[in-house]
Please model this.
Amino acid sequence: MNIQELASTAQAMVAEGKGILAADESTGTIKKRLASINLESTEENRRAYRDLLFTTSGVEEYISGVILFDETIRQKSLDGTPFPELLKAKGIIPGIKPDKGAKPMAGFPGEKITEGLDGLRERLEEYRNLGAGFAKWRAVITIGDGIPTNTCINANAHALARYAALCQEVGLVPIVEPEVLMDGDHTIERCEEVTTITLQQLFTTLLEYRVVLEGTILKPNMVISGKDCPRQADAKEIAEATVRCFKNTVPNTVPGIVFLSGGQSPEEATENLNAMNAMGEKFPWELSFSYGRALQEPVLNTWKGDPANVQAAQKVHHHRAKLNGAARYGKYSKEMEKAG
Ligand code: 13P
Model:
């Protein structure tokens, strides 16, 4: 294992003013996204959409890496350039989602465990040869009556640690993503409690499995009120609770924390990230983004599957990426939303 190489890739992933675009929707998820604009999910439509995202000119100023799905890492742009090559030529690191999705956990109603460890070493080697520099594995933790159980938290931490160790063996930086869902009517305090326990368990397990934290990126949820909670915490409260949670759980050797958007609106996701970076504190880890929906929603809604809208959609993509780039410095303001 080349620790230096892993550490330098990890640092590049959270370079100043930049974050990660999550474009690794599985076949099932992208079908839902394309259905939202009344577009059929054919291989060509999925390719054309990803092509639009990746060929947006200037987006590399704000995007350090892109997470791809198995189908996408093998696809090509219209001129025949494989997507990983196209991204690398722009200075963007291609990444891969090698997990097989979160499935219902047997014996634990309402809870999930992520599958995909079998054959993972060979798959990671193949992805590395296809040009990937990092990978991402998503675990799902659900808040509800009597859940999450410690068993579910531990089982997911174990899978994340085994995945991360295999990634580092082949020279890929693992993004470890334990997502505490925002579904439900729980309070922000409950979210902080569950996120804290989840991250504590995760880092204990990563160290037990000899994962090198200097070459690991954390992708967590923000500490936030449940979607149906009557009291919705504001950006300042979210920023304070989230940073407090990380100070209690995330070792200083982790180079960066990249948030998922998890169902927040694009504006909320940008505003909340900005609030953390505007706290005026120097944190040991970079606080950045790895948004899927919060970067893509406005792009999809502008594109609508019509080739005539590609340029307008790319403009929207560039603008959204730029706003999140500003939030990396704590320099975003709502007025900037209009300027696009
Ligand atoms: P969202 O930002 O849409 O939550 O997606 C991020 C992601 O990669 C989930 O695995």
Summary: The pocket of 1,3-dihydroxyacetonephosphate is lined by residues 22, 138, 177, 260-262, 291-294 (CB under 6 Å). The first helix runs from residue 3 to 13. The domain at 3-339 is CATH 3.20.20.70 (TIM Barrel).
